[in-house]
Amino acid sequence: MNATLSERAIILAPRGRDADIAGAILREAAIDSVTALALPQLVKELHAGAAFALVTDDALAGADLRGIAGFLQAQGEWSDFPFILLTERGGSIERNPAAGRYLELLGNVTFLERPFHPTSLISAAKAALRGRRRQYDARTRLEEIREGAQQLRVALAAGKLGAWSFDLAAMRLDASKDCKAQYGLRAEDDFTYDDLIACVHPDDRELMKSEIRRSLATGADYDVEYRCRWPDASLHWVQVRGRPQFDAAGGVLGLTGVSQDITARKTAEETLRNFAAELEQRVAERTREYADAMAQLHEAQKLETLGQLTGGVAHDFNNLLTPIVGSLDLIRQKISEERLLKLVDGALQASERARTLVARLLAFARRQNLETLPVDVAALIGGMADLIQRSVGPTIALEVKAADQLPAAMVDPHQLELALLNLAINARDAMAKGGRLQIAVDAVAVDKDAELAAGQYVRIAVSDSGGGMDAQTLARAVEPFYSTKGVGRGTGLGLSMVHGLAAQSGGRLRLMSEAGAGTTAEIWLPAAAAAALSPPPQIDRAIAVTPSLTVLLVDDEEPARSSTAAILEDMGHEVVQAGSGETALHLFRARPFDLIITDYLMPAMNGLELAAAARKVRSSIPILMITGFADIAGTGANVARLSKPFRVAELAGAVREVARAAM
């Protein structure tokens, strides 16, 4: 691909001067761009080569998107083409119901709400360009690895070697077709560990078993020759070599190696042994190279995508690497082409869904304290009715029923809204051809229950007329990452989040479903005490207006610091940035500030230490601590706290409250 084309931006913004303005901003950032006048030209330019595309949502609304979908489906496994989508309402489903459809279509998409600051566009563009460059690097590595793997397959075939691996914990034997052929079996025949033992000549079985035990006990290579009887009763000689595989703690996982039919070549034992040892070493080297390249690829792609989504939760991103590490650990035990490709596909699919997965994992991990309030559930659902109806679409009839004189429920209203929206979307997916969605609320008294304490509860029942679940699926429905949806349509965390919210609130989630009879999900929440029945305050989603302040912003992560500064500046505040606690203290002593906003986890001096030092200079300075942790152990410091990730309105509200408290 032409290097100039591969690093350019394609702009599709047919309305007004949007394209000219965007192109000018990108030129200021030294990023080449080309403007597409219509969607077909955009698709043509995408096929010619680009680093990312900058598109306005009005260019996609009502358009034929099959061309873009075809381009994305046809891209190589190394590619996750980035889009920057300029929207009028942002990228949240609550404000922009079309965002979910664009996210599902485009995959790797960053939403940028108009009007935007040029710094925000440049930051998003540079992030997309960096991510695309990493994808190009990954493509080169994958090509090198494939070439090496092909050479290895040719070498194995040339040496008439079979490949096998043995999982000690599961007592599972996996064998290549060449390995099976050496035991007289076809490629499609089952070949278990018990089958292997049965076909070994009775006089050689103990030798074989003792060699396996010796290898697993000492870590030495497994090397044995024995006779085996084929299904046609003929007798053959097989030489088997392997090497123990260990986990990070030094525990034995199993054996991996090669096998060879040596019936006609018993006289060439030494030559064949040396050849097999050389090939075994090459297998280990190629496997390590492949694992290292894939780890670098997926870590880079996930960190890039998650960085765009969470806007400052960089300290928590490593938690998202767990499925990748697990997949790569499995790759080390598999050497057949089919299994390697399957693992690669699984990891790439996880990467494509990383943007959605970040937000859901952070919620599932409970990194924010629940702000439990006495909530009028019926009023909350009534306020969400329009949003839920837009989310499920016009083919699904929504019915809301609430019993009279309901008590308030003790729950975090924000998290309850998210849980109800998740259940509604699950119901929508179960009713592809339309149907009925009912949300009913009533009060239930519990005396004896294995899961709930005795008392009064508010029960929210979300029922759909979809296809339902069989018993096996229902039993696993709330397991994290378990999903029956197709690739790219779900993370398997929706019900897990609802279950976690109900349990943490002192209630439970109860699922009832039968195949063909729909599904009902019940959220049981403890009722508020009688004295707390006043309706909860309305959840203010508007951006809080605060008089202009001089803010000292402290964060060692430059991308997080820059994005937060841009938000504060858009609110009308003057922002002075510092990359460390020491720098911030120097600035604080040199000039007056109205507010300090600081990250908690920083090298050398963390946020609490900075707060204590600043209060020695000026005891009344208001401080807002930004952290990705639910609790800051042993704080005792009089500082307000804002959890990562946060929305613009939440940051504005926190600044307003801190400023108001300081008056």
TrEMBL record:
All residue ranges annotated as the PAC domain in the record: 222-274
SUPFAM superfamilies: ATPase domain of HSP90 chaperone/DNA topoisomerase II/histidine kinase (SSF55874), CheY-like (SSF52172), Homodimeric domain of signal transducing histidine kinase (SSF47384), PYP-like sensor domain (PAS domain) (SSF55785)
Alphabetized UniProt keyword annotations: Kinase, Phosphoprotein, Transferase
Chain positions with 4-aspartylphosphate modification: 599
Domain of life: Bacteria
EC category name: transferase
InterPro entries given in the database record: CheY-like_superfamily, HATPase_C_sf, HATPase_dom, His_kinase_dom, HisK_dim/P_dom, HisK_dim/P_sf, PAC, PAS
Name of the molecule in the record: histidine kinase
